[in-house]
Design a protein that fits this description.
The protein has 344 residues and is an alpha+beta fold. The chain is globular and about 55 Å long. Helix content is 18%, strand content 41%. The protein has two domains: 5-143 and 316-343, Diaminopimelate Epimerase, Chain A, domain 1 (Roll); 148-312, Roll (Diaminopimelate Epimerase, Chain A, domain 1), CATH 3.10.310. The two termini are 30 Å apart. The chain has five helices and 18 strands.
Length: 344
């Protein structure tokens, strides 16, 4: 065996959503902040993302996180998130995976029953509260960057669907949020393919018709995700809802989606449907759950915003080394439109 590149990867999933964590083989990346490093990777080292996430080593349904040294004085570590078509500023399920891997593999010492950490994501410092027992992280609650609503109930013309009402909100990524029932969906797993097809069409329309520029960091991407939101209900006094988040190039987030949950909290608060400290349980189409709440209110660039927190659990499923033989014809992978819509 002769490899000219070797990466050490811890496989992990958070409530069903795969978030690989690369713990070795990359070293550092130029840049003062994780956002700077994210920009460098996107411009100069995108081969790493393609190697990890495209065939024959990866899959459309995988995400990856590069553990990197952080220069922030409070951060135990930094990480850059890589998804199928973008480098998000923030991801909830990936944050849960990163915190779990750091503690369960001993990269950062675990303290039972609770370990408090600060991690640096491209969106900034993310504080995590990890409940631990017998060497296992049983829950990770992260306090996200502020979430805010850009548009509420805006009319959007969607090709083949006519006028659709959409909310647009930032929760670490920018979301088009639409009513699932109004589009004929019950948010069950057998609807997955249709949800993806509709979600991609809605996203394309919203991204071109409704501006979504972050008031403090205009370099953050505009709308790249669609969230199909189920009806609110009460279970034992707890506000609960199901959702399906469609990620490009056209697949469902298997988890309830941390940034999507944060964006929905911003919309619910803007509409007066949830208060600070009120519990909100968000479900995925496979029945996994995130426990969410608004910690406080704030302002971002003069706009009203909320500070959300989201809790879930992750499980390590394997540890492996990925390599590239110098004669391998696919050192950065390949994609086909049978699994990667529109050719990836």
């Amino acid at each position: 065996m002769r490899w000219d590149r070797v990466l050490t990867v811890v496989d992990c999933h958070a409530e069903g959503e795969v978030g690989k964590v690369v713990t070795g083989g990359v070293g550092d990346v130029p840049g003062e902040t994780m956002f700077d490093k994210r920009v460098y990777l996107e411009r100069h080292r995108d081969d790493l993302r393609r190697l990890l996430l495209s065939e024959p080593r990866g899959s459309l349904t995988h995400n990856a996180n590069l553990l990197l040294p952080s220069r922030h004085p409070e951060a135990a570590a930094g990480f850059v998130i890589m998804e199928a078509t973008e480098y998000p500023a923030m991801s909830g399920s990936n944050t849960i995976c990163v915190a779990t891997v750091l503690l369960e593999t001993g990269v950062v010492p675990m303290t039972e029953p609770v370990t408090e950490l600060a991690l640096e994501a491209p969106a900034g410092i993310i504080r995590v509260h990890c409940t631990c027992r017998d060497g296992k992280v049983t829950s990770v609650r992260f306090t996200n960057t502020p979430a805010l609503a850009y548009h509420l109930g805006a009319a959007v013309e969607v090709e083949g669907m006519g006028t659709v009402r959409a909310d647009v909100a930032w929760g670490g990524m920018a979301y088009a949020i639409v009513d699932a029932a109004a589009l004929g969906f019950a948010l069950t797993s057998d609807e997955a393919a249709d949800l993806c097809a509709v979600g991609e069409r809605v996203k394309a329309a919203v991204a071109t018709q409704l501006p979504a520029v972050h008031p403090e960091e205009p370099r953050f991407a505009g709308v790249t995700m669609t969230e199909l939101a189920g009806p609110l209900r009460r279970e034992g006094g707890v506000l609960t809802a199901r959702n399906a988040v469609v990620m490009s190039p056209g697949r469902l987030d298997r988890s309830p989606c941390g940034t999507g949950s944060s964006a929905r909290l911003a919309v619910l608060h803007a509409r007066g449907e949830i208060g600070v400290g009120e519990r909100f349980v968000h479900e995925s189409v496979i029945g996994t759950r995130f426990d969410c709440r608004i910690e406080s209110t704030t302002e971002v660039g003069g706009l009203p915003a909320v500070v959300p927190s989201v809790a879930g659990q992750a499980w390590i499923t394997g540890i492996s080394q990925l390599g590239v033989d110098p004669t391998d014809p696919f050192p950065a992978g390949h994609t086909l439109p049978d699994t990667w819509p529109a050719g990836g």
